[in-house]
Amino acid sequence: MTSDTAAADRTGTDFEIFIVTAPGLESVLCAEVKAKGFRDATAIKGGVTVRGGWPEVWRANLELRGATRVLARVASFRAFHLAQLDKRARRVPWAEFLRPDVPVRVEASCKGSRIYHAGATAQRIERAITEELGAPISAEAEVSIKARIDDDLCTLSVDASGESLHKRGHKEEIHKAPLRETLAALFLHHCGYEGTEPVVDPMCGSGTFVIEAAEIAAGLHPGRTRRFAFEQLASFDDAAWQAMRSAGSAGTAPAVRFYGSDRDGGAIAMSRANAERAGVVALTDFQKHAVSDLMPPEGPPGLVIVNPPYGARIGEKKPLFALYGALGQTLLSRFSGWRVGLVTNEASLAQATGLPFQPSGPSVSHGGLRVTLHSTAALP
Ligand SMILES: C[S@@+](CC[C@H](N)C(=O)[O-])C[C@H]1O[C@@H](n2cnc3c(N)ncnc32)[C@H](O)[C@@H]1O
User: Ligand 1, closest atom to CA 176?
Assistant: First the structure.
């Protein structure tokens, strides 16, 4: 790596990979990244950095449940004025990772730097790409370069994911206020869920927690069915990618089952359809009933994880205190030995359950609200 041209080495085998996540969940993602064997994992603001080459970039997209997107840092250099940016952007070995026949777009941001104009920054880099490589620029391009100038240091990254990774590619039906899959996976992880115990979501909506839990237990990779922007890059090796993807596609048969219920029949139909598309319908059980009719499934205790309606988002706030109270009562009286994870936007609603929550867990922005995970040890 040289400091003033490419951050990637010439063979593309060792560069920095930045794995973006929801702010607040960096350390939870870092634990997942380490558990999945990535090198030099470090949590920083907004995500986790690791080192590796293109195969690690593909694997991060394929395997990491808590990642929002994966950025390959391909170059970094000082740029104190636009002419210097122009000159140095032209020296980036674009052909090592971009294809001249594939459209590309550039998104720029500037902070605390002499170059302060994001539009001019993007324009200089776009011009360098078209004139040096020949690739067309298009606002609709699937491949994008993220340029960031911070303290006069310009860092260029290729967005290897394209569409946000919470879109696993097999969920078409969404209920009101769905949780993003990436957040659901990180919350499951933070509750100590490792794929070996049953999971119950008594307000399952479109089934996000139940399907994520079933996929984890079955050893299925989250990105197994979707496409990624990296498939359009010059560095892409289709045969190696197919081998990597199929290596994890068989899955394993878990010994436990995953249960969702909701009082809304439409939500149950959606959950079943989503589980079907994800290939985990045989591991799941979705039933239409209210939380007051919830009973623990046969077998060992496990984790109840739930994301009840929020005050500000759906419905009124007052009846919610009664709903949270009823949920807490049901769990305390029938779910001895189970742990509980509850995601909500108000501490007072969590308190209304009467559940013995530990100090609050990670808090994260979701759909314009700040939601926090509250979790218990095994209930008495
Ligand atoms: C915020 S949504 C859950 C979203 C879900 N986590 C997802 O990802 O799609 C809350 C859900 O609680 C359900 N609900 C509300 N009151 C209920 C009750 N008394 N019993 C069962 N479900 C209820 C709603 O129908 C809604 O699907």
Answer: 2
